[in-house]
Amino acid sequence: MNVRESVRIAWRSITSHKLRSTLTTIGVIIGVAAVITFMVLGSGFSASIVGDIEAEQEPVMVVQTQTEPEAGVGIVPVDTPIYTESDVEALQEREDVAFVAPEASVDVVQTATDDEQVTGVIDAQATTADRFEHTTFVEGEPFDGPDEAVVNEPASRLFEENLSAGDELELAFEDGEVVTVTVTGVVEREFGEQTPPQVFVPVDSYYETTIETPDGDEEIAYPTLQVGAENFERIDPAQEAVVDYLEEESHAAELKAEDDRIEVQTVEDAIEQFTDIVDQLTLFIGAVAAIALVVGSIGIANIMIVSVTERTREIGIMKAVGATKRDVMQLFLVESVILGVIGALVGVAAGLGAGYLGVRFLEWPMAYPVDWIAIAIAVGIGVGVVSGLYPAWRGARVDPIEALRHE
């Protein structure tokens, strides 16, 4: 019996039991749809973040301490101040380095204008005016005095009347101190919709955390540094010079914990690291969703066994007129593969539809996981083959005499 004849007979069997065939493929449909949905959402999320970062690409590096979590995947930043004033001054003297801007969080618990207060929403950062070297100002300019501040667009829109350059802003700190600063500028959001409301204040006026250096001195230290290169052409040698200093000569190298590592990341490094983490998480979630495929394959195997039992007499007639064991095996394998492929195709369509609705709702770009669509179809064929092997083998072993006596 040729394959074309097997397909025709198998398709006739499937269409003669439409409801049973539909219910049989549901497990495969759910499994494939879940995997494709998570892949679309993961790709869309990654594309959204990467697009925002690339749009703001500047010759700037971020110096940060990182460690691996005890459980889970990826890396986590360490917010420990280990980069001392001496390190900052030494880095500023390196060739190809245009500026070094320290950054540290300050404990602002409430911000207020004349008639409106906002509590616990704004992320307050202490830094220097160099931090805005490559930042686009919507209006105004960097701060130049102790009682001045810069806000970003989300922060400027927190109040009923948007903050503008020249407005006064009241900052209440965790220790109860309240100061009034003048907004000198409003900067664009850096990471699209993901950017939180931020206010930037001068580090000399609002940051006082000190540590004891390896030399025995007491110095102000920061958890993060921004290092600017002269231009894009010099960013690689500048990164190399910064890494060499931090690994071999800096206070930070001696102050960091044993399991921590100092990372000097450009925009390209950050994008690569971010996409690696998202890919790992997406793959993990997709693997969990793929459990449904196992359930689907069991469903197909179960129905194929029932089909062999129901068609025992038909198998006997086929063997009586010359069909071989191989013909019978081929017939049932083709039927189970068709069920698997139908489940995979419908699952891919359902997954793409659910993923499309998800990214539209979350306002992420649509991404088509072509590789995973091909894998899903291959898995559908594989599920059909695996789940149909035993029923096909069982059907091939049916004795034709006993089969013809079967009612």
Note the main attributes of this structure.
52% helix, alpha+beta, 21% strand, 13 helices, transmembrane transporter activity, 2 domains, 407 residues, three-stranded antiparallel beta sheet, cell membrane, 13-stranded mixed beta sheet
Polypeptide structure, described:
It is a multi-pass membrane protein. The structure is a single chain. Helix 2 crosses helix 11 and helix 11 packs antiparallel against helix 12 (370-396). The chain has 2 domains: 3-53 and 273-405, no CATH class; 79-255, no CATH class. The radius of gyration is 32 Å and the shape is elongated. The chain is of the alpha+beta class and 407 residues long. The longest helix is centred in the first third of the chain and has 38 residues, at 18-55. The strands form 2 sheets. Strands 1, 2, 4, 5, 6, 7, 8, 9, 10, 11, 12, 15 and 16 form a 13-stranded mixed sheet that branches. The chain has a 3-stranded antiparallel sheet with strand order 3-14-13. Strand 5 and strand 6 form a beta hairpin. It has helices at 3-16, 18-55, 85-92, 153-156, 203-206, 235-248, 251-255, 267-289, 291-310, 312-320, 325-362, 370-396, 400-405; strands at 60-67, 76-78, 83-84, 97-105, 108-112, 117-119, 123-127, 137-140, 148-152, 168-173, 178-187, 198-202, 210-212, 218-222, 224-229, 261-265.
